[in-house]
From TrEMBL:
Residue ranges of every copy of the Phosphate acetyl/butaryl transferase domain listed in the record: 84-299
Gene Ontology molecular function: acyltransferase activity
Entry keyword set: Acyltransferase, Transferase
SUPFAM superfamilies the record matches: Isocitrate/Isopropylmalate dehydrogenase-like
Source organism of the structure: Denitrobaculum tricleocarpae
Family (UniProt): Belongs to the phosphate acetyltransferase and butyryltransferase family.
Protein name: Bifunctional enoyl-CoA hydratase/phosphate acetyltransferase
Domain of life: Bacteria
Length: 309
C-alpha cells in the first residue's frame, strides 16, 4: 500500500447490507487463513451466513486460530478445489445459498464450475464485474466496470457491462445514474476504436437503458471534473458528474482501480453480476475492509433483487 491511511469499509454499505437477514453465502475452498478471516469479518458484521466448502479439518483449524466457534454453520466436506467449486455451484443452483465467494481457489477453476451448463447459474445476460470505489475525500459513490472479467469487450458485451452496472447503481439507491463511456478523447476518432464504440453505445442507450444517462466518449477528466467539462465546452448531465465509468478494456480498468487503491487509499468492493447469484471474486491481496465491503455489496444486490421480484 503506497497510500499512508488505512483502508476503511464504507459504513453506508454495511448499513444497507444489514437491512435484511445475513446473506447465506458459499465460501469455496475455505480452508485458508485469509479466507476464514474474510468470512469471519463478514459474519461478525451481520452481513453473511457462511456455508463452508472445503477441507473440514483446515476450516476448523483456521477458525480456531480466530477464536471463532463455527459449530452453528454448515461445513461441506470437499476433497479439492474443483469439487468444492462444483458443490458450491450446485448449492447455488438449488437455492441453498444466495451468493458465492471465491476462497483459496484458482479463479479459472472457480469460474468454470459456476458457469458450466450443469450449474445452471447463467442468465440471458453476460457475466461482468463491477468495482464499487470509495475514495477518501470524494463525495458520492463511484462504480468502475469491467475491470476484472471481460478482457477486451465488444459492443454487445459492453451493453451487458452497462446494464449490469446500472442495475447495481439502482440497488445502491442511485435513481438515475450517470454513466461515462471512457476513452482518451471526447471526439470520435477512427484511430481510437473506443471513441467510436462509445458513440454507438450512447445512441443505443437512449432507448434501451432505463433510468440512466449514458454518454461518451469522455476522457477521465471530463467524466469526473465539472470544471474540466466547462472549460472544454462539453455540456451534458454526465460530463463531470459520472456515477459509473465504463472502461474500454481490462488493462485500462485494472490500472485505474489499482491506482485508486494504492495511491488514493480507495476501498474497492468487487462483485460479479449477470449470473443468478452474486459472485464475490475476492483476492488474497485485498485488504480486509475491501473483502468485507464486497460481501456487503453482494447482500445489497440480492436484497434489492428479492424486493424487486
Amino acid at each position: 500500500m503506497l497510500g499512508k491511511n488505512q483502508v476503511e469499509c464504507p459504513q453506508s454499505l454495511l448499513r444497507a447490507a444489514r437491512s435484511s437477514a445475513p446473506l447465506r453465502t458459499a465460501i469455496v475452498n475455505a480452508g485458508a487463513a485469509v479466507v476464514m478471516e474474510s468470512a469471519y469479518d463478514a459474519a461478525s458484521a451481520g452481513v453473511i451466513e457462511p456455508v463452508f466448502f472445503g477441507d473440514s479439518d483446515a476450516i476448523q483449524k483456521y477458525a480456531s486460530e480466530l477464536n471463532w466457534d463455527i459449530s452453528g454453520y454448515e461445513v461441506i466436506e470437499s476433497g479439492d478445489e474443483q469439487s468444492a467449486a462444483i458443490a458450491a455451484a450446485s448449492a447455488a443452483s438449488g437455492g441453498d445459498v444466495a451468493a458465492v465467494m471465491k476462497g483459496h481457489i484458482h479463479t479459472d477453476v472457480f469460474m468454470r464450475a459456476l458457469l458450466s451448463r450443469n450449474a445452471n447459474l447463467r442468465t440471458e445476460r453476460r457475466l461482468t464485474h463491477v468495482f464499487h470505489m470509495t475514495v477518501p475525500g470524494r463525495e458520492g459513490q463511484l462504480l468502475l466496470t469491467d475491470c476484472a472479467v471481460n478482457i477486451h469487450p465488444d459492443v454487445e458485451t459492453k451493453k451487458a457491462v452497462i446494464q449490469n452496472a446500472v442495475d447495481l447503481a439502482h440497488a445502491l439507491g442511485i435513481e438515475k445514474p450517470k454513466v461515462a463511456l471512457l476513452s482518451a478523447t471526447e471526439e470520435q476518432m477512427e484511430q481510437m476504436p473506443s471513441s467510436i464504440e462509445a458513440k454507438l453505445l450512447t445512441d443505443w442507450a437512449r432507448d434501451s437503458v432505463k433510468s440512466a444517462d449514458v454518454f461518451g466518449p469522455l476522457a477521465m477528466d471530463l467524466a469526473l471534473s465539472a470544471d474540466a467539462a466547462r472549460t472544454k465546452g462539453v455540456d451534458h448531465p454526465v460530463a463531470g458528474h459520472a456515477d459509473i465509468i465504463v472502461v474500454p478494456d481490462i488493462v485500462t480498468g485494472n490500472a485505474l482501480f489499482k491506482m485508486m487503491v494504492h495511491y488514493m487509499n480507495a476501498c474497492a468492493a468487487g462483485i460479479g453480476l449477470g449470473a443468478k447469484v452474486p459472485i464475490l471474486l475476492t483476492s488474497r491481496a485485498d485488504p480486509p475492509a475491501a473483502r468485507l465491503a464486497s460481501a456487503a455489496l453482494a447482500a445489497i444486490v440480492k436484497n434489492h433483487g428479492d424486493q424487486s421480484a
